[in-house]
Amino acid sequence: MERKSDFSEWYSEILKRAEILDVRYPVKGAYVWFPHGYKLRNLIYGILRSLLDEEHEEVLFPLLIPEDELLKEKEHIKGFEEEVFWVTKGGSTELEVPLALRPTSETAIYPVFKVWIRSHRDLPLRIYQIVNTFRYETKHTRPLIRLREITSFKEAHTVHASRAEAEEQVKKAVTLYKEFFDRLAVPYLVTRRPEWDKFPGADYTLAFDTLLPDGRALQVATIHLLGESFARTFEIKFEDRDGSLKFVNQTCYGISERCVAAVISVHGDERGLVLPPEVAPVQVVVVPILYSRGRSGAEGGAEGGAEAEEVLQAGVGVVKELKEAGVRVLLDDSDERPGAKYFKWELKGVPLRVEVGPRDLRAKSCELVCRHDFSRTQVPLAEVVSEVKRALSEIQDQIHERAKTAFRGFSSVFLCEQERCGREVEERLGVSVLGEAVAENREGGERGAVAEGKSGESGEGGEREEGGREGKGGSEGKCVICARGGKRVYIARSY
Ligand code: 5CA
User: Fold this and answer.
1) Residue 415 pLDDT > 90, yes or no?
2) What is the pLDDT of residues 293-313, one digit of tens each?
3) With 60 as the cut, is the pLDDT of residue 446 above it?
């Protein structure tokens, strides 16, 4: 399975063969999680949940939104009206008020915020939920990437007393998402989306993009400063310390199962999945090498049988020790040949394999084989727990480093703020304008395009520059289309 030359084919094959997702469900844009895929999904979400839990509380709002609430925020509905699935009947009875399947939950949550929030003492309010959302996507649907049923929309909504506090929250959300993607070893670029591409109803939108092996950008997270717009529509006010009534300031941010797509696509190779140990459902597979098939010694004679039993017991012992040490470990003592076992677990992305054979046993050792680079190390059986733990931590770092090296960043051009110019660049080059890199980019340590430097150093708009090389050309120059003053924006073919 060649990953680069035909990424699309590789991606479909991997979802099927590594048992992530079954795409045979008869509803467009809706898919079935296999057990292995579901475990991976839950481990990934567990990280996000634990990060969110530090400062947010989990809630659960209904799936159905009354039409009148959904239509209230004019900008918002303009952006979503073509994407909404409607429930119009209960049995054979037409509903008086049609109900929307949430495409996102602002209009479900904010009417309730109106009654929850009374005073400055109720603020800040930070909640999140992990729910399914529905979007009638008209573009080509793709498993985990463009869904009509997003099965796990991790949406956070926060409410503040002032715009400054809401902006502070946006920064915190950037830091939180950076930590999340760092732990998935997925590199990213954070940009501020152009005005014409922000979330419907937001003041501005920041987005995380990663790069898939076919050179296309995948937007994996967005953070929106909503300001007062929804507060005015839904009349969410609070009594401030001085007794005056004020509109609240809001933010929201979310991540879908695209984060799972990113982990699969960024790290995988021609043999299958390569999973960072942090999120691998099986971190270690122990394979006893039993030369006498059948373990009872049917082929190897009595002596071979006894040796095979010892090897098996050594494997069982290693599994027990690792399990006790909190490692997600599995013993493969099936009757398959070792080669077939290696193939199977490599396909599923198990980061580390422990092989124990008769020769290893005589030397009181075993062999560790890393999935991502196939390197082998002989380690004493007595030190297997510490050696495995060390290896897993090194693998996590090496996979991250490798992904950062492969992340070439994005090209950039100078553009003014007019939508007309942006659209023209998109059309002419067949790309999306991702936007200006935001200052916070630096902290994450990603190689992504960071344009620094003084304004208009080169003065030539329109040069294409690889991201990752800082400073060259500066952050301001002439718009490639109209030659007026422009800023450096990143562009990429995108999903
Ligand atoms: N309420 C806000 C924040 S939660 C919101 O809905 N933002 S969003 O529209 O930008 O969606 C959040 C993220 O979900 C996007 O950045 C994108 O990564 C992902 N996403 C959007 N549409 C789909 C889709 N159809 N399938 C899979 N993921 C999607």
Assistant:
1) yes
2) 544 444 555 667 888 899 999
3) no
What distance in Å separates the CA atoms of residue 299 and residue 123, rounded to the nearest whole number?
A: 73
Q: Give the residue ranges of DSSP H helices in 160-287.
A: 163-183, 229-234, 258-267
- Which atom of ligand 1 lies nearest, measured to the CA of 135? 25
Q: Which two tokens stand for residue 422?
A: 């942006």
Q: Which amino acid is at 215?
A: G
Does the pLDDT of residue 390 top 80, yes or no? yes
- The pTM for the full model equals 0.92
Distance of alpha carbon 309 from alpha carbon 290, whole angstroms: 8
- For residue 206, the one-letter residue type is L
Whole-number pLDDT of residue 451? 32
Handedness of CA 110, 115, 116, 122 (dihedral sign): positive
Largest CA distance in the chain: 90
Residue 140 has what DSSP assignment? Answer: P
The residue to mutate among 106, 180, 216, 258, having the most atoms of ligand 1 within 8 angstroms of its beta carbon, is 258
Which atom of ligand 1 is least distant from the CA of 145? 27
Q: Is the Cα torsion angle 330, 333, 336, 340 positive or negative in sign? A: positive
CB 457 within 8 A of CB 475: no
Distance CA 135, CA 257 (A): 14
